UniProtKB/TrEMBL annotation:
Encoding gene per record: LOC108879007
Organism: Lates calcarifer (Barramundi)
Name under which the protein is recorded: Flavin-containing monooxygenase
Domain of life: Eukaryota
Keywords: FAD, Flavoprotein, Monooxygenase, NADP, Oxidoreductase
EC number: 1.-.-.-
Entry cofactors: FAD
Enzyme class: oxidoreductase
Stated family: Belongs to the FMO family.
Gene3D superfamilies with a match to the protein in the record: FAD/NAD(P)-binding domain (3.50.50.60)
Molecular function in Gene Ontology: flavin adenine dinucleotide binding; N,N-dimethylaniline monooxygenase activity; NADP binding
Keyword NADP appears in the UniProt entry: yes
Length: 115
């Protein structure tokens, strides 16, 4: 019997969660409300209402070795302190390498009601 797991959000934590679920033989389904992966690391010229956005010039304040996924090092040719566009490139490489995108439902609005 396959166990399905809901993952909320396709940012860095969501991508890692999808990968961990797959490693454990689970069937993850990630619900991402925006139009792409990346979470708060994705710059948007016109942010959606009620959604945080980084500045276009944001650069990580920790080294690439400290912020990378343990099972997927950041390419050596990337600078030590990366611009947000390179972080997004890295997230896409990670998602592609482990075939995570087929488990992500983009623009998925979860509707919750109070009981």
């Amino acid at each position: 019997m396959t166990r399905r797991v809901a993952v909320v959000g396709g940012g860095s934590s969501g991508l890692a969660c999808i990968k961990c679920c797959l490693d454990e033989g689970l069937e993850p389904v990630c619900f991402e409300s925006s139009d792409d992966i990346g979470g708060l690391w994705r710059f948007k010229e016109n942010p959606e209402p009620d959604r945080a956005s980084i500045y276009h010039s944001v650069i990580i304040n920790t080294s690439k070795e400290m912020m990378c996924f343990s099972d997927f090092p950041i390419p050596a040719h990337f600078p030590n302190f990366m611009h947000n566009t390179l972080i997004m490139d890295y997230f896409r490489m990670y998602a592609d390498h482990f075939q995570l995108t087929k488990h992500i439902r983009i623009r998925y609005k979860m509707l919750c009601s109070s009981m």
